[in-house]
Amino acid sequence: MKITVELYGATKDLSKRNFLEFEINKNSSIKDIKIQILDLIEKSFKGNQDLKKLIENSAFCSEKDEIISENYKINEDQKIGIIPPIGGG
Amino acid sequence: MLHAKIIETSKEKIDILKAEEFLSSANFGAIIYFVGTVRKLNENKKVTGITYDARDTMVIKSFKDIYKDAELKLKIKDKAVYIEHVKGYVSIKEKSIIIGVGCKHRDEAYSLSRFIIEEIKKRTPIWKKEHYANKESEWLKGASIQL
């Protein structure tokens, strides 16, 4: 299955395309996606601690704009959004 | 009555006159505008501008949710709310957000305006990248989103 993670705020530094794509197994959870992103930071960003912390402090949302928990299961190709700490106004 | 919109700064700017038109009503004895602008100094760094990023659909949803919550928590029945937030680059002194509220009385209007901006800070997925006079730029840290 393919999952697309749309990037916002500081997480846009992870890709020039504003999104990440991962091949995942059926029934993978948001926790598994987080691990994949942390692996990417390890490999492509020399384990940058600020980026890792950013991911640890981020929430995720579904295509319907609902915040989803770490245990949320992904059973089909879909897009999710990563919501790093916010600061509008 | 709610107006909620994201203003793409490459196409338009926040216009207070439009808020004034929207809020104009003989039902309201108090109208308040809160306008957020970009200031030139942040943590001793000379700021030249800010780029705002947003998840548009979720921003509008959060504005609607905040409006509904204001109704439940503040119990203000007759009101109008006008919220616009920018997305894209804004220079110092330019507007990043406008919250206009119209209510029967001033107590309600002040409470409502304050409630909305504080909830936006906690719940609305918007991010700021500051640009500095030394040509550097950085995403501000922010706070984890609250439900």
Secondary structure: number of strands of chain A: 7
Helix content of chain B: 25-40%
The topology string of helices and strands of chain A comes to EEEHHEEEE
Structural class of chain B: alpha+beta
Ordered list of secondary-structure elements with their pairings:
The complex is a heterodimer of chains A (89) and B (147).
Chain A: E1 2-6, E2 19-23, E3 28-29, H1 30-44, H2 49-56, E4 59-61, E5 67-68, E6 73-74, E7 78-83
Parallel strand pairs in A: 1-7
Antiparallel strand pairs in A: 1-2, 3-6, 4-5, 4-7
Helix pairs in contact in A: 1-2
Chain B: E1 2-8, H1 16-23, E2 30-37, E3 41-42, E4 45-54, H2 56-74, E5 79-91, E6 95-103, H3 106-123, E7 126-132, E8 137-139
Parallel strand pairs in B: 1-5
Antiparallel strand pairs in B: 2-6, 3-4, 4-5, 4-7, 5-6, 7-8
Could you name the key traits of this structure?
heterodimer, A: alpha+beta, 5-stranded mixed β-sheet, B: 147 residues, alpha+beta, 3 helices
Structure description:
- The complex is a heterodimer of chains A (89) and B (147).
- Chain A has 89 residues and is of the alpha+beta class.
- Chain A contains 2 helices and 7 strands, in the order βββααββββ.
- In chain A, α1 (30-44) packs antiparallel against α2.
- Chain A has a 5-stranded mixed beta sheet with strand order 2-1-7-4-5, with helices on one face.
- Chain B is 31% helix and 40% strand.
- In chain B, α2 packs across α3.
- Chain B starts with a strand and ends in an 8-residue tail after the last strand.
- At the A-B interface, loops of A face β4, α2, α3 and β7 of B.
